């Protein structure tokens, strides 16, 4: 080997070594994430409702939505399961608060029942979610089979949006019991997160469901589903074969998106949170983006006057409670 070639090889080796070190440093570079932390004490805001003829001693308020109506009052609609309404036994009940931080919101009665003339499953109403935009309120909800949409001018009285098939359905699938919708707007695009699972446990040992997302520009036409979260540690912390992918709720925090994903209801309630730069990827069969777990169930996060609040089901499944919330910036390896 001549001298010039020898020197070239030495220089090439040094460059390669430095490149390797740089690559390793990039791999080891900490990732920024956000962890939700409860601030202070909880306070109760609702209790077990009186459903009149539909009342059942085993009824339970479960998935819900909270928003501020046009007149400034705060609205909470909850799916009440185990009622005497027939079919799947579910309907929507409404409470109202004068202030977000009131400790006892006023019961306002049954708000909505399934409309079987619009192809909704009798007693199948599930998990409402509401957001306001340009003077209108949009309520997404499940009818047991599909995600549906109703619209309101005042945030109290909602009218179903019926499609050409005389149905309120926007979309369904890819699996069974399409439910738990939640919508945010990212760079001008609406993103709907929701849950679905296998109709029966296939006993494969693999995840039986997932949190999916679909995108839309007009709230009418939606993209094909993309799985954004499933499996990982929470899959082994649930009460039933697909209970680890329920009640998705996503919050935009600076340059991150934080997903709340539910595993358990009741006295041992449990919810897992993930922080990701990509709102369509919170980890499939991995804990890579996990930032923490909270003893809450089906939480909804509200940002109001510079403060975050978290609303959760109470452990007795007999109403809702509220607390202040903050997101703590942290570094992960």
Q: Let me know the CATH homologous superfamily of the largest domain.
A: Glycosyl hydrolase domain, family 43
Count of alpha/pi helices: 1
Radius of gyration in whole Å, from Cα?
A: 23 Å
Number of folding domains? 2
Beta strand count? 21
Shape: globular
CATH topology type of the largest domain: Tachylectin-2, Chain A
The largest β sheet comes out as: 5 strands, antiparallel
**What structural class is derived from the secondary structure elements?**
mainly beta
Can you give a write-up of this model?
The protein has 333 residues and is mainly beta. It has two domains: 31-47 and 180-333, Tachylectin-2, Chain A (5 Propeller); 50-172, 5 Propeller (Tachylectin-2, Chain A), CATH 2.115.10. It is 8% helix and 47% strand. The chain is built from one helix and 21 strands. It has one helix spanning 3-28, and strands at residues 31-44, 60-68, 74-81, 91-97, 106-112, 126-133, 136-142, 147-152, 159-160, 169-171, 176-186, 189-197, 209-216, 226-229, 246-253, 256-264, 270-276, 290-294, 300-304, 307-313, 320-332. The strands form five sheets. Strands 6, 7, 8, 9 and 10 form a five-stranded antiparallel beta sheet that branches. The longest helix is centred in the N-terminal third of the chain and has 26 residues, at 3-28. The radius of gyration is 23 Å and the shape is globular. The mean pLDDT is 93.
